Records
---
Amino acid sequence: MGVAVLGSTAAALYRGNLPDLELDGPTAAAARDSVGEAAHIAERLGGSVGRALLDTASHAYTLAITPAFLMAGGLAVAAAATSWALIPRDLRPTENH
Protein backbone atom coordinates (compact mmCIF):
# COMPACT_ATOMS: atom_id res chain seq x y z
CA MET A 1 0.00 0.00 0.00
CA GLY A 2 2.80 2.41 0.87
CA VAL A 3 4.61 1.81 -2.40
CA ALA A 4 1.41 2.43 -4.34
CA VAL A 5 0.78 5.71 -2.54
CA LEU A 6 4.37 6.87 -3.03
CA GLY A 7 4.34 5.83 -6.70
CA SER A 8 1.05 7.60 -7.33
CA THR A 9 2.36 10.72 -5.60
CA ALA A 10 5.54 10.68 -7.68
CA ALA A 11 3.57 10.12 -10.92
CA ALA A 12 1.19 12.98 -10.16
CA LEU A 13 4.07 15.31 -9.29
CA TYR A 14 5.93 14.28 -12.46
CA ARG A 15 2.94 15.16 -14.63
CA GLY A 16 2.40 18.38 -12.71
CA ASN A 17 6.04 19.47 -13.05
CA LEU A 18 6.27 18.65 -16.74
CA PRO A 19 5.61 21.85 -18.70
CA ASP A 20 3.58 21.96 -21.90
CA LEU A 21 5.47 19.89 -24.43
CA GLU A 22 5.56 21.05 -28.01
CA LEU A 23 4.81 17.57 -29.34
CA ASP A 24 1.81 16.07 -31.08
CA GLY A 25 -1.00 14.77 -28.86
CA PRO A 26 -0.16 11.04 -28.59
CA THR A 27 3.58 11.69 -28.29
CA ALA A 28 3.08 14.29 -25.55
CA ALA A 29 0.69 11.95 -23.72
CA ALA A 30 3.26 9.15 -23.85
CA ALA A 31 5.98 11.46 -22.51
CA ARG A 32 3.67 12.46 -19.65
CA ASP A 33 3.07 8.80 -18.76
CA SER A 34 6.61 8.15 -17.54
CA VAL A 35 10.13 9.44 -17.67
CA GLY A 36 11.11 6.20 -19.41
CA GLU A 37 8.70 6.89 -22.25
CA ALA A 38 9.99 10.44 -22.45
CA ALA A 39 13.55 9.08 -22.77
CA HIS A 40 12.50 6.74 -25.60
CA ILE A 41 10.77 9.59 -27.41
CA ALA A 42 13.79 11.86 -26.89
CA GLU A 43 16.08 9.19 -28.35
CA ARG A 44 13.76 8.74 -31.32
CA LEU A 45 13.57 12.51 -31.94
CA GLY A 46 17.31 13.05 -31.51
CA GLY A 47 19.16 16.33 -31.88
CA SER A 48 18.45 19.41 -29.84
CA VAL A 49 14.71 18.64 -29.62
CA GLY A 50 15.36 15.23 -28.10
CA ARG A 51 17.99 16.61 -25.75
CA ALA A 52 15.59 19.36 -24.59
CA LEU A 53 12.83 16.83 -24.00
CA LEU A 54 15.15 14.57 -22.00
CA ASP A 55 16.39 17.50 -19.90
CA THR A 56 12.82 18.66 -19.24
CA ALA A 57 11.61 15.17 -18.32
CA SER A 58 14.65 14.54 -16.10
CA HIS A 59 14.08 17.79 -14.24
CA ALA A 60 10.37 17.02 -13.77
CA TYR A 61 11.27 13.52 -12.50
CA THR A 62 13.75 14.94 -10.00
CA LEU A 63 11.15 17.41 -8.74
CA ALA A 64 8.66 14.54 -8.41
CA ILE A 65 10.74 11.79 -6.86
CA THR A 66 12.46 13.91 -4.20
CA PRO A 67 9.26 14.60 -2.20
CA ALA A 68 8.20 10.96 -2.63
CA PHE A 69 11.52 9.78 -1.16
CA LEU A 70 11.20 12.30 1.67
CA MET A 71 7.70 10.97 2.39
CA ALA A 72 9.07 7.41 2.44
CA GLY A 73 11.81 8.42 4.85
CA GLY A 74 9.35 10.23 7.09
CA LEU A 75 7.03 7.23 7.13
CA ALA A 76 9.93 4.93 8.04
CA VAL A 77 10.94 7.21 10.91
CA ALA A 78 7.31 7.42 12.09
CA ALA A 79 6.99 3.62 11.99
CA ALA A 80 10.23 3.20 13.95
CA ALA A 81 9.15 5.75 16.55
CA THR A 82 5.75 4.09 16.91
CA SER A 83 7.35 0.67 17.33
CA TRP A 84 9.79 2.05 19.89
CA ALA A 85 6.95 3.64 21.85
CA LEU A 86 4.75 0.52 21.81
CA ILE A 87 7.34 -2.12 22.78
CA PRO A 88 7.16 -2.73 26.55
CA ARG A 89 10.34 -1.60 28.34
CA ASP A 90 10.53 -4.78 30.42
CA LEU A 91 10.33 -7.12 27.41
CA ARG A 92 13.20 -9.62 27.42
CA PRO A 93 13.77 -12.18 24.69
CA THR A 94 13.79 -15.80 25.80
CA GLU A 95 16.57 -18.23 25.07
CA ASN A 96 14.39 -20.00 22.48
CA HIS A 97 13.75 -16.90 20.38
Note: The CA atoms of residues 25 and 31 lie 10 Å apart.
---
Amino acid sequence: MRISGEPRPLPTGIDVTAYRIIQEALTNALKHGDGAKAEVTVRYADHYLRVEVLNSGPSVLSGGRPAGREPVPGRADGTGRGLLGLRERVAVYGGDLDARRRLGGGYRVRARIPLDRP
Protein backbone atom coordinates (compact mmCIF):
# COMPACT_ATOMS: atom_id res chain seq x y z
CA MET A 1 0.00 0.00 0.00
CA ARG A 2 1.37 3.39 -1.00
CA ILE A 3 -0.04 6.82 -0.29
CA SER A 4 1.34 9.84 -2.10
CA GLY A 5 0.48 13.49 -1.78
CA GLU A 6 -0.96 15.07 1.32
CA PRO A 7 -3.80 12.93 2.73
CA ARG A 8 -6.86 14.96 3.66
CA PRO A 9 -10.51 14.36 4.48
CA LEU A 10 -12.58 13.46 1.43
CA PRO A 11 -16.28 13.96 0.77
CA THR A 12 -18.08 10.87 2.07
CA GLY A 13 -19.21 9.65 -1.36
CA ILE A 14 -15.72 9.87 -2.84
CA ASP A 15 -14.20 8.21 0.22
CA VAL A 16 -16.63 5.28 -0.05
CA THR A 17 -16.08 5.06 -3.82
CA ALA A 18 -12.30 4.83 -3.35
CA TYR A 19 -12.80 2.12 -0.72
CA ARG A 20 -15.09 0.13 -3.07
CA ILE A 21 -12.57 0.38 -5.93
CA ILE A 22 -9.84 -1.08 -3.75
CA GLN A 23 -12.18 -3.73 -2.31
CA GLU A 24 -13.41 -4.87 -5.74
CA ALA A 25 -9.95 -4.89 -7.32
CA LEU A 26 -8.45 -6.94 -4.48
CA THR A 27 -11.40 -9.33 -4.52
CA ASN A 28 -10.92 -9.83 -8.27
CA ALA A 29 -7.19 -10.38 -7.73
CA LEU A 30 -7.97 -13.16 -5.26
CA LYS A 31 -10.65 -14.74 -7.46
CA HIS A 32 -8.98 -14.47 -10.85
CA GLY A 33 -5.30 -13.76 -10.31
CA ASP A 34 -2.50 -16.01 -9.24
CA GLY A 35 -2.57 -14.49 -5.77
CA ALA A 36 1.16 -13.73 -5.74
CA LYS A 37 1.12 -9.96 -5.27
CA ALA A 38 -1.12 -6.89 -5.26
CA GLU A 39 -0.15 -3.23 -4.96
CA VAL A 40 -2.50 -0.42 -3.96
CA THR A 41 -1.63 3.22 -4.56
CA VAL A 42 -3.72 6.19 -3.43
CA ARG A 43 -2.56 9.56 -4.70
CA TYR A 44 -3.89 12.83 -3.32
CA ALA A 45 -3.37 15.55 -5.94
CA ASP A 46 -4.55 19.15 -5.78
CA HIS A 47 -7.69 18.58 -7.84
CA TYR A 48 -8.21 14.83 -7.97
CA LEU A 49 -7.79 11.51 -6.18
CA ARG A 50 -6.17 8.64 -8.05
CA VAL A 51 -6.62 5.05 -6.91
CA GLU A 52 -4.68 2.24 -8.59
CA VAL A 53 -4.56 -1.47 -7.85
CA LEU A 54 -2.07 -3.69 -9.70
CA ASN A 55 -1.88 -7.43 -9.33
CA SER A 56 0.45 -10.05 -10.75
CA GLY A 57 -0.61 -12.84 -13.01
CA PRO A 58 0.07 -14.44 -16.37
CA SER A 59 1.10 -12.24 -19.28
CA VAL A 60 -1.49 -11.22 -21.86
CA LEU A 61 1.27 -11.80 -24.44
CA SER A 62 1.51 -15.49 -23.55
CA GLY A 63 -2.26 -15.86 -23.36
CA GLY A 64 -1.83 -17.72 -20.09
CA ARG A 65 -4.31 -18.00 -17.26
CA PRO A 66 -3.69 -18.98 -13.67
CA ALA A 67 -3.76 -22.73 -13.17
CA GLY A 68 -7.27 -24.08 -12.74
CA ARG A 69 -8.88 -20.84 -13.95
CA GLU A 70 -11.07 -21.09 -16.99
CA PRO A 71 -13.08 -18.24 -18.45
CA VAL A 72 -16.78 -18.12 -17.69
CA PRO A 73 -18.68 -19.03 -20.88
CA GLY A 74 -20.35 -16.01 -22.47
CA ARG A 75 -18.36 -13.47 -20.47
CA ALA A 76 -15.06 -11.90 -21.44
CA ASP A 77 -12.35 -11.14 -18.85
CA GLY A 78 -12.96 -7.87 -17.02
CA THR A 79 -16.62 -7.45 -17.95
CA GLY A 80 -18.15 -8.44 -14.64
CA ARG A 81 -20.86 -6.33 -13.04
CA GLY A 82 -18.56 -5.25 -10.21
CA LEU A 83 -16.35 -3.22 -12.53
CA LEU A 84 -19.39 -1.84 -14.37
CA GLY A 85 -20.82 -0.67 -11.05
CA LEU A 86 -17.52 0.98 -10.15
CA ARG A 87 -17.43 2.82 -13.48
CA GLU A 88 -20.91 4.15 -12.74
CA ARG A 89 -19.93 5.23 -9.21
CA VAL A 90 -16.83 7.05 -10.44
CA ALA A 91 -18.80 8.72 -13.27
CA VAL A 92 -21.17 10.26 -10.71
CA TYR A 93 -18.22 12.39 -9.55
CA GLY A 94 -17.04 13.20 -13.09
CA GLY A 95 -14.18 10.71 -12.94
CA ASP A 96 -13.10 7.75 -15.01
CA LEU A 97 -12.13 4.16 -14.31
CA ASP A 98 -9.90 1.96 -16.45
CA ALA A 99 -9.57 -1.77 -15.83
CA ARG A 100 -7.51 -4.05 -18.05
CA ARG A 101 -4.99 -6.86 -18.23
CA ARG A 102 -1.36 -5.72 -18.19
CA LEU A 103 0.98 -6.76 -21.00
CA GLY A 104 3.64 -7.97 -18.56
CA GLY A 105 1.12 -9.95 -16.55
CA GLY A 106 -1.66 -9.31 -14.10
CA TYR A 107 -4.42 -6.74 -14.05
CA ARG A 108 -4.68 -3.00 -13.41
CA VAL A 109 -7.62 -1.03 -12.05
CA ARG A 110 -7.11 2.74 -12.08
CA ALA A 111 -9.57 5.49 -11.19
CA ARG A 112 -9.23 9.25 -11.30
CA ILE A 113 -11.85 11.18 -9.33
CA PRO A 114 -12.03 15.00 -9.41
CA LEU A 115 -12.13 16.62 -5.97
CA ASP A 116 -13.13 20.13 -7.00
CA ARG A 117 -16.42 19.34 -8.68
CA PRO A 118 -19.48 21.05 -7.13
Note: Residues 66-76 have pLDDT under 50 and may be disordered.
---
Amino acid sequence: MNLFRTLRGIAFFGLAGAGLSGCLSAPSYSNTPEIEFRDVKVTRIPAVNGNVGRDTLEFVLGFRDGDGDLGLGPEDLAMAPFNTKTGGHNNRGYSYNYFIQPYKKNAVTKNFDFFVTPAQPPFPAGIAGEYDSQYPRLNGADGRAAPLKGELRYKLPLSLDGTVFAPGQVFRFEISILDRGLHESNKITTSEVTL
Protein backbone atom coordinates (compact mmCIF):
# COMPACT_ATOMS: atom_id res chain seq x y z
CA MET A 1 0.00 0.00 0.00
CA ASN A 2 2.82 2.44 0.87
CA LEU A 3 4.58 1.55 -2.41
CA PHE A 4 1.41 2.43 -4.31
CA ARG A 5 1.12 5.81 -2.54
CA THR A 6 4.79 6.57 -3.24
CA LEU A 7 4.43 5.70 -6.93
CA ARG A 8 1.21 7.71 -7.16
CA GLY A 9 2.99 10.73 -5.54
CA ILE A 10 5.92 10.49 -7.94
CA ALA A 11 3.56 10.23 -10.91
CA PHE A 12 1.58 13.26 -9.68
CA PHE A 13 4.69 15.44 -9.30
CA GLY A 14 6.04 14.23 -12.65
CA LEU A 15 2.81 15.15 -14.45
CA ALA A 16 2.59 18.48 -12.61
CA GLY A 17 6.17 19.33 -13.61
CA ALA A 18 5.48 18.40 -17.25
CA GLY A 19 2.35 20.55 -17.20
CA LEU A 20 4.17 23.55 -15.78
CA SER A 21 6.97 23.37 -18.36
CA GLY A 22 4.33 23.50 -21.08
CA CYS A 23 2.88 26.69 -19.54
CA LEU A 24 6.19 28.56 -19.37
CA SER A 25 7.09 30.65 -22.39
CA ALA A 26 9.99 32.88 -23.35
CA PRO A 27 9.66 36.48 -22.14
CA SER A 28 8.41 38.99 -24.67
CA TYR A 29 10.89 41.85 -25.04
CA SER A 30 11.24 44.41 -27.80
CA ASN A 31 13.91 43.72 -30.45
CA THR A 32 15.23 47.21 -29.66
CA PRO A 33 17.47 46.87 -26.60
CA GLU A 34 16.25 48.43 -23.36
CA ILE A 35 18.70 49.49 -20.65
CA GLU A 36 18.42 50.79 -17.10
CA PHE A 37 21.02 52.45 -14.90
CA ARG A 38 22.02 50.36 -11.90
CA ASP A 39 25.29 51.79 -10.58
CA VAL A 40 28.53 53.59 -11.27
CA LYS A 41 31.51 52.52 -9.17
CA VAL A 42 34.75 54.46 -8.82
CA THR A 43 38.15 52.86 -8.28
CA ARG A 44 40.79 55.42 -7.33
CA ILE A 45 44.51 55.09 -7.95
CA PRO A 46 46.18 58.06 -6.22
CA ALA A 47 49.16 59.93 -7.63
CA VAL A 48 52.32 58.37 -6.16
CA ASN A 49 56.03 58.89 -6.93
CA GLY A 50 55.42 61.26 -9.83
CA ASN A 51 52.72 59.07 -11.41
CA VAL A 52 49.45 60.74 -12.33
CA GLY A 53 46.36 59.75 -10.35
CA ARG A 54 43.67 57.77 -12.15
CA ASP A 55 40.03 56.92 -11.61
CA THR A 56 38.36 53.98 -13.28
CA LEU A 57 34.61 54.28 -13.59
CA GLU A 58 32.64 51.04 -13.83
CA PHE A 59 29.17 51.50 -15.28
CA VAL A 60 26.60 48.82 -14.42
CA LEU A 61 23.53 48.63 -16.68
CA GLY A 62 20.62 46.23 -16.72
CA PHE A 63 19.60 45.20 -20.23
CA ARG A 64 17.03 43.17 -22.11
CA ASP A 65 16.61 42.47 -25.80
CA GLY A 66 13.98 40.43 -27.64
CA ASP A 67 16.22 38.77 -30.22
CA GLY A 68 19.46 38.78 -28.20
CA ASP A 69 21.64 40.25 -30.95
CA LEU A 70 23.83 42.21 -28.56
CA GLY A 71 27.57 42.75 -28.84
CA LEU A 72 30.17 42.41 -31.58
CA GLY A 73 32.68 39.63 -32.16
CA PRO A 74 35.70 39.49 -34.49
CA GLU A 75 33.57 37.92 -37.24
CA ASP A 76 31.16 40.87 -37.09
CA LEU A 77 33.93 43.48 -37.20
CA ALA A 78 35.27 41.96 -40.43
CA MET A 79 32.03 42.63 -42.33
CA ALA A 80 29.88 45.57 -43.34
CA PRO A 81 28.47 47.65 -41.81
CA PHE A 82 30.65 47.07 -38.73
CA ASN A 83 33.94 47.60 -40.60
CA THR A 84 33.03 51.10 -41.81
CA LYS A 85 34.44 54.33 -40.39
CA THR A 86 31.45 56.59 -41.11
CA GLY A 87 27.75 56.47 -40.30
CA GLY A 88 26.24 55.28 -37.09
CA HIS A 89 26.05 57.05 -33.76
CA ASN A 90 28.27 60.19 -33.75
CA ASN A 91 29.22 59.37 -37.39
CA ARG A 92 32.18 57.25 -36.24
CA GLY A 93 31.16 53.97 -37.89
CA TYR A 94 29.31 50.92 -36.65
CA SER A 95 32.21 49.25 -34.83
CA TYR A 96 31.13 51.18 -31.72
CA ASN A 97 28.13 49.78 -29.85
CA TYR A 98 28.48 51.39 -26.39
CA PHE A 99 27.96 55.16 -26.37
CA ILE A 100 29.17 57.32 -23.49
CA GLN A 101 28.64 61.07 -23.42
CA PRO A 102 30.06 62.93 -20.39
CA TYR A 103 28.38 65.98 -18.90
CA LYS A 104 30.46 68.19 -16.58
CA LYS A 105 28.88 70.09 -13.70
CA ASN A 106 29.36 73.82 -14.01
CA ALA A 107 30.71 75.12 -10.69
CA VAL A 108 28.75 78.39 -11.02
CA THR A 109 25.38 77.41 -12.50
CA LYS A 110 25.34 73.83 -11.12
CA ASN A 111 24.02 72.69 -14.52
CA PHE A 112 25.57 69.76 -16.34
CA ASP A 113 27.12 70.90 -19.64
CA PHE A 114 27.84 68.73 -22.68
CA PHE A 115 31.54 67.84 -22.44
CA VAL A 116 34.17 67.20 -25.11
CA THR A 117 37.91 67.06 -24.58
CA PRO A 118 39.32 70.61 -24.61
CA ALA A 119 41.98 71.50 -27.17
CA GLN A 120 45.52 70.65 -26.10
CA PRO A 121 48.25 71.90 -28.50
CA PRO A 122 49.17 70.43 -30.90
CA PHE A 123 45.92 68.42 -30.77
CA PRO A 124 42.53 69.87 -31.76
CA ALA A 125 39.55 69.89 -29.42
CA GLY A 126 37.82 66.57 -28.89
CA ILE A 127 34.70 65.38 -30.60
CA ALA A 128 31.36 64.23 -29.30
CA GLY A 129 31.45 60.50 -28.77
CA GLU A 130 35.16 60.12 -28.27
CA TYR A 131 34.37 57.96 -25.24
CA ASP A 132 32.30 55.53 -27.31
CA SER A 133 33.43 51.94 -27.06
CA GLN A 134 32.55 48.34 -27.75
CA TYR A 135 31.24 45.35 -25.81
CA PRO A 136 31.57 41.71 -26.96
CA ARG A 137 28.83 39.32 -28.09
CA LEU A 138 26.55 38.43 -25.21
CA ASN A 139 24.57 35.54 -26.71
CA GLY A 140 27.41 33.09 -27.38
CA ALA A 141 28.96 31.85 -30.59
CA ASP A 142 25.84 30.20 -32.03
CA GLY A 143 24.10 33.58 -32.36
CA ARG A 144 20.57 32.13 -32.11
CA ALA A 145 17.80 34.68 -31.82
CA ALA A 146 16.41 34.42 -28.29
CA PRO A 147 15.38 36.88 -25.58
CA LEU A 148 18.31 38.04 -23.51
CA LYS A 149 18.35 39.78 -20.12
CA GLY A 150 21.23 40.56 -17.78
CA GLU A 151 23.77 43.06 -16.55
CA LEU A 152 26.38 44.83 -18.67
CA ARG A 153 29.50 46.19 -16.95
CA TYR A 154 31.95 48.55 -18.61
CA LYS A 155 35.11 50.20 -17.23
CA LEU A 156 36.28 53.64 -18.35
CA PRO A 157 39.77 54.68 -17.12
CA LEU A 158 40.37 58.43 -16.72
CA SER A 159 43.74 60.08 -16.18
CA LEU A 160 43.54 62.91 -13.64
CA ASP A 161 46.48 64.92 -14.94
CA GLY A 162 44.48 68.15 -15.27
CA THR A 163 44.64 68.39 -19.08
CA VAL A 164 41.19 66.82 -19.54
CA PHE A 165 40.08 65.48 -16.16
CA ALA A 166 41.13 66.72 -12.73
CA PRO A 167 40.39 65.76 -9.14
CA GLY A 168 37.24 67.41 -7.76
CA GLN A 169 35.39 67.68 -11.07
CA VAL A 170 31.83 66.35 -11.05
CA PHE A 171 30.42 64.42 -14.01
CA ARG A 172 27.46 62.38 -15.00
CA PHE A 173 27.20 60.29 -18.16
CA GLU A 174 24.55 59.58 -20.75
CA ILE A 175 24.79 56.01 -22.08
CA SER A 176 23.08 53.96 -24.77
CA ILE A 177 23.93 50.73 -26.61
CA LEU A 178 23.45 49.39 -30.15
CA ASP A 179 22.60 45.84 -31.23
CA ARG A 180 23.71 44.05 -34.39
CA GLY A 181 20.39 44.91 -36.03
CA LEU A 182 21.48 48.58 -35.62
CA HIS A 183 18.70 49.30 -33.11
CA GLU A 184 19.83 51.88 -30.55
CA SER A 185 18.54 51.51 -27.01
CA ASN A 186 17.00 54.17 -24.85
CA LYS A 187 19.44 56.58 -23.17
CA ILE A 188 20.07 56.47 -19.44
CA THR A 189 21.79 59.06 -17.26
CA THR A 190 24.08 57.96 -14.44
CA SER A 191 24.24 59.47 -10.99
CA GLU A 192 26.86 62.16 -10.27
CA VAL A 193 30.50 61.10 -9.91
CA THR A 194 33.17 63.25 -8.27
CA LEU A 195 36.67 62.56 -9.60
Note: The first helix runs from residue 2 to 23.
---
Amino acid sequence: MAVEPLSRTEIDNRLADLPGWSLTEGRLTRVYRLGSHFAATAMVVHIAQVQEELNHHSDLTLGYDTVALTVHTHSAGGAVTALDFGLARRVEDLAPVHGAR
Protein backbone atom coordinates (compact mmCIF):
# COMPACT_ATOMS: atom_id res chain seq x y z
CA MET A 1 0.00 0.00 0.00
CA ALA A 2 1.51 3.33 -1.07
CA VAL A 3 1.66 6.11 1.49
CA GLU A 4 1.23 9.61 0.11
CA PRO A 5 3.05 12.66 1.48
CA LEU A 6 0.82 15.32 2.99
CA SER A 7 0.81 18.88 1.67
CA ARG A 8 2.08 21.69 3.88
CA THR A 9 -1.52 22.86 4.35
CA GLU A 10 -2.61 19.38 5.46
CA ILE A 11 0.35 19.18 7.85
CA ASP A 12 -0.43 22.60 9.34
CA ASN A 13 -4.10 21.68 9.80
CA ARG A 14 -3.22 18.43 11.56
CA LEU A 15 -0.58 20.11 13.74
CA ALA A 16 -3.32 22.38 15.10
CA ASP A 17 -4.69 19.30 16.91
CA LEU A 18 -1.28 18.35 18.37
CA PRO A 19 -0.03 21.10 20.69
CA GLY A 20 3.70 20.88 21.27
CA TRP A 21 4.38 19.18 17.95
CA SER A 22 6.01 21.09 15.10
CA LEU A 23 7.40 20.62 11.62
CA THR A 24 11.19 20.92 11.78
CA GLU A 25 13.35 20.28 8.73
CA GLY A 26 10.49 18.41 7.06
CA ARG A 27 9.77 16.11 10.01
CA LEU A 28 7.30 16.08 12.88
CA THR A 29 9.09 16.76 16.16
CA ARG A 30 8.23 16.89 19.85
CA VAL A 31 10.20 16.99 23.10
CA TYR A 32 8.57 15.88 26.34
CA ARG A 33 9.83 16.74 29.83
CA LEU A 34 9.31 14.20 32.56
CA GLY A 35 9.84 14.13 36.31
CA SER A 36 12.74 11.71 36.37
CA HIS A 37 15.06 9.58 34.29
CA PHE A 38 13.03 6.51 35.25
CA ALA A 39 9.80 8.12 33.97
CA ALA A 40 11.51 9.12 30.71
CA THR A 41 12.86 5.58 30.24
CA ALA A 42 9.43 4.08 30.89
CA MET A 43 7.89 6.41 28.31
CA VAL A 44 10.50 5.39 25.71
CA VAL A 45 9.64 1.73 26.26
CA HIS A 46 5.93 2.50 25.95
CA ILE A 47 6.50 4.43 22.71
CA ALA A 48 8.58 1.55 21.34
CA GLN A 49 5.67 -0.80 22.01
CA VAL A 50 3.30 1.49 20.09
CA GLN A 51 5.78 1.76 17.21
CA GLU A 52 5.96 -2.02 16.97
CA GLU A 53 2.17 -2.28 17.03
CA LEU A 54 1.87 0.28 14.22
CA ASN A 55 4.96 -1.02 12.38
CA HIS A 56 5.99 2.61 12.12
CA HIS A 57 9.19 3.67 13.85
CA SER A 58 10.55 7.11 14.63
CA ASP A 59 13.84 8.49 15.83
CA LEU A 60 13.48 8.38 19.60
CA THR A 61 15.98 10.06 21.93
CA LEU A 62 16.19 9.57 25.68
CA GLY A 63 17.71 12.30 27.81
CA TYR A 64 18.00 12.46 31.59
CA ASP A 65 14.41 13.66 31.98
CA THR A 66 13.39 14.19 28.35
CA VAL A 67 12.06 12.15 25.45
CA ALA A 68 12.39 13.54 21.92
CA LEU A 69 10.74 12.19 18.78
CA THR A 70 11.45 12.91 15.13
CA VAL A 71 8.87 11.34 12.86
CA HIS A 72 8.69 10.87 9.10
CA THR A 73 7.84 8.07 6.67
CA HIS A 74 10.81 6.34 5.03
CA SER A 75 8.62 4.63 2.40
CA ALA A 76 7.38 8.07 1.28
CA GLY A 77 10.89 9.36 0.69
CA GLY A 78 11.17 10.84 4.17
CA ALA A 79 8.02 12.96 3.80
CA VAL A 80 5.38 13.46 6.46
CA THR A 81 2.30 11.26 5.99
CA ALA A 82 -0.89 10.32 7.80
CA LEU A 83 1.08 7.45 9.41
CA ASP A 84 3.25 9.99 11.20
CA PHE A 85 0.24 11.79 12.59
CA GLY A 86 -1.23 8.47 13.73
CA LEU A 87 1.94 7.75 15.69
CA ALA A 88 2.05 11.30 17.08
CA ARG A 89 -1.56 11.01 18.27
CA ARG A 90 -0.86 7.70 20.01
CA VAL A 91 2.19 9.19 21.75
CA GLU A 92 0.15 12.20 22.85
CA ASP A 93 -2.46 9.86 24.30
CA LEU A 94 0.10 7.89 26.35
CA ALA A 95 2.19 10.88 27.50
CA PRO A 96 -0.03 11.82 30.50
CA VAL A 97 0.33 8.30 31.92
CA HIS A 98 4.05 9.06 32.34
CA GLY A 99 3.55 12.60 33.64
CA ALA A 100 5.05 14.06 30.46
CA ARG A 101 4.61 17.71 29.68
Note: Residues 13 and 25 are 18 Å apart (CA to CA).
